[in-house]
Specification:
The complex is a heterodimer of chains A (108) and B (113). Chain A has 108 residues and is mainly beta. Helix content of chain A is 0%, strand content 54%. Helices cover 0% and strands 53% of the residues of chain B. Chain B has strands spanning 5-7, 10-13, 19-24, 31-38, 42-50, 53-57, 64-68, 74-78, 87-94, 103-104, 108-112. In chain B, the strands form two sheets. In chain B, strands 2, 4, 5, 6, 9, 10 and 11 form a seven-stranded mixed β-sheet that branches. The radius of gyration of chain B is 13 Å and the shape is globular. The N and C termini of chain B lie far apart (37 Å). Classes of the chains: A mainly beta (108), B mainly beta (113). The interface between A and B is medium-sized, with 21 and 22 residues.
Chain lengths: 108, 113
């Protein structure tokens, strides 16, 4: 059983389209992080959300933490081929849990 | 500033053997965490080391162990390798305890035949 479920698992879109990735849990997290991983590399931290209801923007990426701190979303506006990669949400206390991952392909 | 380095990058072993992987954290970082990444299970937490002590451990059998040295470098060891241990092993370093601001290395790809 995965503590953090992401949807969709796979996403293939055209350049310029918008998309949203969801990260859901039945557990409350004090904070959630989002990472992007490219083939042959380790994950790179994009953002940390801490407060319920918080919205953070990173250029064309918008991250939201649910009010109950059990879920989060990542919205990408006008996706570009450089956004291609595996997107992972993560969080934890003593142990650290990663989500199931969303593999995004942006087609030029 | 140099990033997290892991050696070796690729490794092929046979069942029953043991393996040691190495991780050098970013200079000044004292916390090192290890993760296993497989297509089926995704990224799973193995353990966290801080100041040469294991602080937290994930749900892996005792065949998986690690240690951290006084210079913060860390090693993980897997004994009696099984086919299912084939995975990408990632280490991450951070300045303090916990999992904020983790910087990941490129990983060691282990194949068990």
């Amino acid at each position: 059983t995965q503590l953090l479920e992401q949807s969709p698992q796979f996403l293939s879109i055209q350049e310029g389209e918008n998309l949203t990735v969801y990260c859901n849990s039945s557990s409350v997290f004090s904070s959630l992080q989002w990472y992007r991983q490219e083939p042959g590399e380790g994950p790179v931290l994009l953002v940390t959300v801490v407060t319920g209801g918080e919205v953070k923007k990173l250029k064309r990426l918008t991250f939201q933490f649910g009010d109950a701190r059990k879920d989060s979303s990542l919205h990408i506006t006008a996706a570009q081929p450089g956004d291609t990669g595996l997107y992972l949400c993560a969080g934890g206390g003593n142990q650290f849990y990663f989500g199931t991952g969303t593999s995004l392909t942006v087609i030029p | 500033k140099a990033g997290v380095t892991q050696t070796p990058r690729y490794l092929i072993k046979t069942r029953g053997q043991q393996v040691t992987l190495s991780c050098s954290p970013i200079s000044g970082h004292r916390s090192v965490s290890w993760y296993q990444q497989t297509p089926g299970q995704g990224l799973q937490f193995l353990f966290e080391y801080f100041s040469e002590t294991q602080r937290n451990k994930g749900n892996f059998p005792g065949r998986f162990s690690g240690r951290q040295f006084s210079n913060s470098r860390s090693e993980m060891n897997v004994s009696t390798l099984e086919l299912g241990d084939s995975a990408l092993y990632l280490c991450a370093s951070s300045f303090s305890r916990g999992y904020n601001e983790q910087f990941f290395g490129p990983g060691t790809r282990l194949t068990v035949l």
